[in-house]
Design goal:
The chain is an all-beta fold and 204 residues long. Helix content is 2%, strand content 54%. A 15-stranded antiparallel β-sheet has the order 1-19-18-17-16-15-14-13-12-11-10-9-8-7-6, with no helix packed on it. A hairpin with a 5-residue loop joins strand 14 and strand 15. The longest helix has 4 residues.
């Protein structure tokens, strides 16, 4: 059971990260995974001190909270894209003359974007596939593992799958209530999110 208490780093999350450019603080509050093995899946709930600005996403969580799968890709004019990763950090891609639909990240992290396919690839060949700005598929280069993400009609993440493993997200009135890890259709673990006054109060 994990209670969310303001000002208590131990109860809020692990491995806090500070963005020196913005003064923002990002924390991992809770992580859950299916059983170990080749089809293992993992997901986590993150907290961000500054309000999130993922316009293309329906988060399903109170302000400042997000899942690691809440990643977005948005066009910023004709020759610029912004990618928001699973921890909430933003990456800018710009287009070089003569490169067609190919964009490069300005931080020099070795990420490239194919805007026509909405795909970001790193130097190792790992790929993130987006659809309408939302993360749709993750492909790991070394293992050829593919993780597929599905959304409901309202844009909320409903399920992520990898082989025989799945993580399912259940909502009530558009707010995330449970995260259920399954292997071969059997429930391995479930997280329940509890709210008070419109705020996330407890994860158990």
């Amino acid at each position: 059971m994990k209670e969310i208490r303001k000002g208590s780093k131990a109860s809020i999350g692990e491995n806090p990260k500070w963005d020196l450019a913005t003064g923002d603080v990002k924390l991992k509050a809770e992580e859950v995974a299916t059983s170990s093995g080749k089809d293992m899946l993992r997901t986590c709930i993150n907290y961000e001190l500054q309000p999130l600005t993922l316009q293309v996403l329906n988060i399903g969580l109170p302000e400042h909270w997000k899942l690691d799968l809440h990643q977005s890709l948005a066009a910023e004019g004709a020759d610029k894209y912004t990618y928001t990763d699973g921890e909430g950090f933003s990456h800018t891609f710009i287009k070089y003359p003569g490169e067609g639909n190919r964009y490069y990240d300005t931080e020099g992290a070795g990420l490239t974007l194919d805007s026509s396919a909405e795909t970001i690839t790193d130097e190792s060949g790992n790929r993130l596939k987006f659809e309408n700005g939302r993360l749709k598929q993750i492909t790991e280069a070394n293992t050829a593992v593919v993780k597929n993400i599905t959304y409901d009609a309202g844009g909320l993440i409903k399920r992520v799958t990898r082989g025989n493993s799945a993580i399912e997200y259940n909502y009530s009135d558009g707010i995330l209530q449970t995260i259920t890890c399954k292997t071969n259709g059997n429930t391995i673990r479930q997280l329940k999110l509890c709210y008070a006054g419109g705020h996330l109060a407890e994860i158990r």
